[in-house]
């Protein structure tokens, strides 16, 4: 294990944040790949993917906060050899991520008619709204994947 109490704080922060930065780059590459393939379908499809991509980035940023917080709290509990606390934090985080995913799903479902109307007004094409709502719906359970952060630490028992 690397001792983070010695050396440059800036260097340690950059080292630890590299993974998060790379995950954001990969998400951006996913969006660009979506845009490339959907680009053949027309400007309405590109608009839908672009808007859904922005919403996805917002959800991803929020879920990264949950994942980083969970990992930090579990690491602190593991460092204190407090298995009970690590499991409690993991369970709370997992439940919170499911609740957030359900809330996002409900909000997306409730906003769907408005999105369809907006797309119809803006482009005169209902297909944009349908594409957008399908893309946003597919990203609903992103928080659940972040809620599992620290799973290995929380589930590892020291006997």
In words, what does this structure look like?
This protein is mainly alpha-helical. It has helices spanning 9-38, 43-79, 83-123, 126-138, 142-147, 151-155. It has one domain (9-155). The chain has six helices and no strands. Helix 2 (43-79) runs parallel beside helix 4. The chain is flat, with a radius of gyration of 20 Å. The chain starts with 8 loop residues before the first helix and ends with a helix.
The best one-word shape is flat
Radius of gyration: 20 Å
Mean pLDDT: 74
Overall domain count? 1
Helix content: over 70%
Provide the low-confidence segments as ranges. 146-159
Beta-strand percent range:
under 5%
Number of helices: 6
How many angstroms does the end-to-end distance come to?
20 Å
Could you name the key traits of this structure?
159 residues, mainly alpha
Describe the protein's topology:
Blueprint: H1 9-38, H2 43-79, H3 83-123, H4 126-138, H5 142-147, H6 151-155
């Amino acid at each position: 294990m690397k001792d983070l109490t010695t050396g440059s704080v800036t260097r340690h922060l950059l080292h630890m944040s590299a993974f998060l930065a790379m995950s954001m780059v990969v998400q951006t590459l996913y969006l660009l790949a979506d845009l490339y393939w959907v680009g053949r379908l027309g400007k309405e499809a590109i608009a839908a993917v672009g808007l859904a991509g922005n919403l996805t980035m917002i959800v991803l940023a929020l879920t990264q906060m949950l994942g980083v917080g969970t990992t930090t709290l579990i690491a602190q509990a593991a460092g204190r050899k407090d298995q009970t606390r690590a499991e409690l934090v993991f369970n709370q985080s997992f439940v919170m991520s499911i609740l957030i995913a359900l809330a996002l799903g409900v909000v997306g479902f409730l906003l769907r008619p408005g999105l369809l109307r907006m797309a119809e007004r803006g482009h005169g094409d209902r297909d944009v709204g349908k594409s957008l709502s399908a893309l946003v719906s597919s990203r609903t359970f992103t928080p659940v994947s972040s809620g599992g952060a620290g799973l290995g630490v929380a589930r590892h028992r020291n006997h």
